[in-house]
Amino acid sequence: MPSDPTARLARQVGFILEVDRLKEIFRQTLVTQSRRQENDAEHSWHLCLMVLVLAEHANAPDLDVLRVLKMLLIHDLVEIDAGDTFAYDETGRADQREREVRAAERLFGLLPADQGAEFRALWEEFEARATAEARFAAAMDRFHPMLLNCATEGAAWRKHGVTHDRVVARNRHIAEGAEAVWTYAAGMLREAVARGHLPA
Amino acid sequence: MPSDPTARLARQVGFILEVDRLKEIFRQTLVTQSRRQENDAEHSWHLCLMVLVLAEHANAPDLDVLRVLKMLLIHDLVEIDAGDTFAYDETGRADQREREVRAAERLFGLLPADQGAEFRALWEEFEARATAEARFAAAMDRFHPMLLNCATEGAAWRKHGVTHDRVVARNRHIAEGAEAVWTYAAGMLREAVARGHLPA
Asked: What whole-number distance in Å separates Cα of residue A82 and Cα of residue A75?
C-alpha cells in the first residue's frame, strides 16, 4: 500500500464509479420478464449466482470458488470500451482481442498498480481458459445466454439466424468445465429445436 | 445429494431462471450515465466488485471474502416478492421483515433442501450483522447508493427530501465494517451538502 491510504481509497472509488458504465452495455440476450436486452452488469451478477448454485457440478473436485467469482465479476469490464461482441458475430470477433486489450489497459490502469495488475491477471486467466477455475467460469458464461435464450423462445438466435450446429460448436467447451451442465444444456438445445425456437 | 443428479440440476436451473426477476426490481438510486433507476441485479454486481476493490479496508484483518460475496449475491433476492423498500421509507420498513421472510421461504424453497438452507442462513447472517463478514457486506450495501447519489447530484435524496442528518444516522454503521470507508463517505456527504446536492 502506498504511504497515503486516503489517496489510494480515492483512486479505488474512481475506478468503482467508472465501471458503473457496465450497466449500459447491452447484450443480444433478452431478460425473461420484460424481454428487454440484458446488460453486462446484470449478466455478471447472474453468472456469479449460478456459480454458487452449480459449483458442485464442476469437473474439478477442489474448485476455488472465490477465484471463479473474481474472474466473473470483472470478465466483461473491457466491454465498457470495446463493446459487446455477439458470440456468433465472426467479423466483430476478428479484432475483438485487440480492442479488449486496449480497454483492459485503460480500465485496470485506473486502480492502484498492485490491484490493477491483479485484475489484469484475472482477466487474462479467464480469457486463456487454462485453469480449472477459468474453464468453469467460461462454462457459466456460455451456459447463461443459452438458458435465457431457451426461456425467451430463442429470440436472439432467431433474430440473428443462428443454427443448432453453430450453437453446439461455440458452446461445447462447457463440458471442459462441467460435463453435467453440458449434458443438460445439449438436451435443452434439442428441445429448443423441437419447439422451433432454434433452427436445425 | 439426492439419488437423481439430473433432477437436482433441473431444480437448480429452475431457481436460476426464477431469480432473473431481480433485473426488474428497481431502486431509487440512479445509474451515473443514462440516469435511469438502477435495478437490484446491477446493484448486486456492483457491490461484489466493490468488495474485491475495498476488502483491504475492512476492520476485520482476516475477512472471509467468499462469504461476503455469497451474502451480497443473494441479499436482495427477497425483493423479487417483497419489493424494494427505500432506505428512508419508515412506513415501508415497518412490515419489511415480515414480507421478506415470506419471500425467503418461497424463493430459497425452490432449491434442493440443503442448498436452500445454506442460502437462507447466509441471508439471515447478512440481516443480523453480527459477524465481521456481514458487517462489511452491510457497509458496502450502504456505501454504494451514497456513492451513486453523490455522482448524480443527489437525485434520489432531493426527490425524497432526505437530509444530511438522516443519511448519517442511517449509514454510520458503515464504520462497524470499515472505518476508513465511513471516514471517506462522511467527507463525501459534507461535500454533497456544500454543493447543494444534499439538504443540510
From this structure: 12
For A112-159, the pLDDT digits (tens) are 999 999 999 999 999 999 999 999 999 999 999 999 999 999 999 999
Q: Tens of pLDDT along B107-131?
A: 999 999 999 999 999 999 999 999 9
Q: Give burial (CB, 10 Å; 0-12/13-18/19+) of B193.
A: middle
**Pick from A160, A46, A138, A149: nearest CA to B74:** A46
pLDDT tens profile A90-119: 888 889 999 999 999 999 999 999 999 999
Contact across the interface for B66 and A69, Cβ inside 8 Å: yes
Interface pTM, i.e. ipTM: 0.96
Question: Distance (Å, rounded) from C-alpha B143 to C-alpha B46?
Answer: 11
- Residues of chain A with Cβ-Cβ distance to B54 below 8 Å are 9, 12, 16
Residue written as grid cell 421509507: B89
Strand partners, B37: B30
From chain B residues 19-78, the ones with a CB under 8 A of any chain A CB are 19-24, 31-34, 38-39, 41-42, 44-46, 48-50, 52-54, 56-57, 65-66, 69-70, 73-74
Q: If we measure between CA atoms, which residue out of B116, B170, B175 comes closest to residue B145?
A: B170
Residues of A in contact with B72 (CB under 8 A): none
Q: What does pTM read for this prediction? A: 0.96
Distances (CA, A) of B116 to B10, B72, B78, B105, B106: 15, 16, 13, 9, 10
DSSP string over B150-199? HHTTTHHHHHHT--HHHHHHHHTTHHHH-HHHHHHHHHHHHHHHHTTSS-
Provide the b/e sequence for A53-78 (b: ≥16 CB within 10 Å).
bbbbbbbeeebebbbbbbbbbbbbbb
Give the CA distances from residue B123 to residues B147, B148, B187, in Å, rounded to whole numbers and listed in that order: 24, 24, 31
Contact (Cβ atoms closer than 8 angstroms) between residue A51 and residue B74: no
